[in-house]
Amino acid sequence: MKKLFNSFFVSLSIAFGLLSLESYAANQKIRVGLVSQSYNAIKFASSSKGGIFVEQADNFVKVADINPRQFCSAKNKNGTLEILVDGKKVVTIKGKVIIKSIDMNTTYEPLIFADTKWYRGQIEIFPSPKNVKSITVVNSLPLEEYLYGVVPSEMPASWPLEALKTQAVAARTYAIKNYGQFSSDGFDILPTTMSQVYEGAEAETPNSNKAVDETKNKIITYDSKVINAYYSSGAGGMTENGLDAWGNDLPYLKSVEDYDFDSPKYTWYKHITNEDIQNFVKKEYKVVLGKITNISVLETTKSGRAKTVKIKGTKSSIDVNPKKMRLALKLNSTLFQVTVAEPGTIIEEKKIIVPELFLFSGKGFGHGSGMSQYGARFLAKSGKTFDDIIKHYYSGVQISDYK
């Protein structure tokens, strides 16, 4: 068993998951878009002896060796990649470059460094398909090894093992279902909350890796099909159904009781100024309301989340989408009510009050649909197994093995 080379060393076993469900084919690796359209240069290295390979016809040919922890760089110059080792140019190419370890007989699991982190698998660098002046950097690796970097990034590794197993199965299912979502950008999935958080090898711990290993190949299905395994930090006591969360009446996403009482965001409060509300409406809806006089939740979903919010101003009023409001104003969830925090000034001629501050009081953190991470922790502490937890949050599902 090899050890993982990192800023620290941890022991772990290697699990290679091969699958053939949906569009994810057997032996196929998942490609994580680490950098896209925002950089024109990047540094890279290998923890063991590595090689730089370039695309020629249908093959990749090695053009240079790199020593362990020898930092190199890739630059995009008007759509052409320049690869430098010790400041010396070793290759210029318009296509793809791959950096990978070539010495597998090492004490520690060979890793590749890119941008700011160490990763398993290999790194691909190529001119960005949508911006030829930038570079795209992709980490290509087996699904199970990808999950080693997802589980502790999405859920604290100190949490109960059954909660971590729940996270591993949900993350594996999500990755398979959303495989290829960003194919036009040259990769499958993002390392952020736009997909699911992936911090690479440096995030790994023995406990979270154990959760991945002990659920190897396990995915969530409904009627023999892979589900969209949405999850969030906490739902504030009740999860959101699929129709209200995503506009799609997914049968496995029903509102169920959540147990996220220990979440620091189980209840929350946020003050927002009158000016910030005005700016939100102007930016998102191109409407000038004047001074805001009142904000009210007109309609709620079955779980109590805001479905329609009316904002009144001194000039006009508008009904807004609370999901847009949540993102723009950085609210924790759409499970909120609004009250006046400070009365502010009075416009005598109109006999109305213009508040200076509005208080948003709410519950939960995130979209609130599917598995609740804090709820999973509570249920795991209560003795529930990962399959119990999954079947609580996803209605009528099965836990299946992919092959």
Which descriptor suits the 3D outline? Answer: globular
Which strand-content bin applies to the residues?
A: 35-45%
Protein structure class: alpha+beta
Major sheet: order of its strands? 3-15-14-10-5-6
Number of strands: 28
For the record, give the distance between the C-alpha atoms at the N and C termini, rounded to a whole number: 24 Å
Could you name the ranges where pLDDT drops below 50 across 5 or more consecutive residues?
5-26
The Rg value, from CA coordinates, equals 25 Å
Number of helices: 8
Helix content: 10-25%
User: Largest sheet, if any?
Assistant: 6 strands, antiparallel
Q: What is the average of the pLDDT values? A: 89
Write a structural description.
The protein is an alpha+beta fold and 403 residues long. It is 20% helix and 36% strand. It contains 8 helices and 28 strands. A hairpin with a 4-residue loop joins strand 24 (345-347) and strand 25. Helix 1 (143-154) packs across helix 2 and helix 2 (161-177) runs antiparallel to helix 7 (373-381). Residues 5-26 have low confidence and may be disordered.
Keywords for this structure?
403 residues, alpha+beta, 6-stranded antiparallel beta sheet
Précis, in short:
The protein is an alpha+beta fold and 403 residues long. Helices cover 20% and strands 36% of the residues. Strands 3-15-14-10-5-6 form a 6-stranded antiparallel sheet.
